[in-house]
Amino acid sequence: MQNTKNILKYLTLGGLFAIPFIAFIVPSGMFFPFISGKGFAFRILVEILFGLFVMLAFIDKEYRPKFSWLTKSFILFTFIILIADLLGQNPYKSLWSNYERMEGFVLLAHLLLYYLVVSSVINTKELWNKLFNTSIFASVLMSFYGLFQLAGKIGISQGGVRLDGTFGNATYLAIYLVLHIFLCLYMLVSESQKNWQKWTYGSIIVLETIMLYFTATRGAILGLIGGLLLAGILIVWKEKENKTLRKIAYWLAGGVVVVILGFILLRGTPLVKNSPVLSRFSNLGFSEFQTQGRYYVWPMAVKGIMDRPLLGWGQESFNFVFNKYYDPGLFGQEEWFDRTHDLVLDWLIAGGIIGFLAYVSMYVAFFYYIWRKKSVLNTAQKSIITGTNMYWSRTNP
Fold this sequence. Notes:
Layout: H1 2-18, H2 33-59, H3 69-86, H4 91-96, H5 104-121, H6 125-150, H7 170-190, H8 195-215, H9 218-238, H10 243-266, H11 270-273, H12 278-282, H13 286-289, H14 293-307, H15 318-324, H16 343-371, H17 379-392
């Protein structure tokens, strides 16, 4: 029995540690290969892992799920969205999505299964650190891929100059990089007891920040700046013992403010205007927003939410709202939108107020466990995780 348990345990761990490398799967023979290949690989691997996990949990109760408030909120959210999808405008599409998005309830169900497996099997600090480092290692490989794109050795899938890695979309690569920059910061304040560790995580942060810059994705870059500013403020506010860390946080927050003010002062100069990346930021403002599709799409979404306020339209159903409340002002913009490109509005459309509140409950539970007095995390760890998730919770490409 012990041998069987060990085999199941290491097979499950092996699968969990393989998941970060799914990002590199791009099967050329599939529809939407940058999306569908990764989507199918994730689903298949999670189904196998969940089967192994069920057998492991049956043998040893140590690996059975702990039904914390966080776990309950995940299950509640998944259940409510299922009801919203079944009662929605197009239940079939809400459940299965399409090859371009690979989302729908099927993805949510697999994400729930993945959460149950990873939260039950990765049950020690050492294992979590190894998993984080594995994901960071994968992100370094992705950054080197970006370097080859930048050097012209590998083509950029979207064309143009915005790096997209193996995601086929600069925005997706940018979000991926932001997550791993914060993850490196977390490891830097958690496990970097030796100089080589500090230099390693620091070098990765610099590399991935450079790659993020060349994605020219404004939302992700602004999200990184905002997350760093929030983390710095929290450390300054909450850290009472580590004066060195608090001083670093002061410099971090101050540096972010200086960068913002410096850019505002230089935004009209040739240095900014002639840069394909910086020029995208120089036009930020309400006047530019009025020329974008979201200026017209978001009011349409609000009208759709008012139509079905409780459980929404179901996932993958914004096109019905788009068609019903189409604004002629969109002429000359994209022909259609299948998303509002705002996470709050998208979940209000998909699951209504009930679904959105269930979504928020996951973050409430998460931050409760992060910041409660019994938390084993220190102030820096809590602050960095909060900075990461305050950005991540609003991300929707």
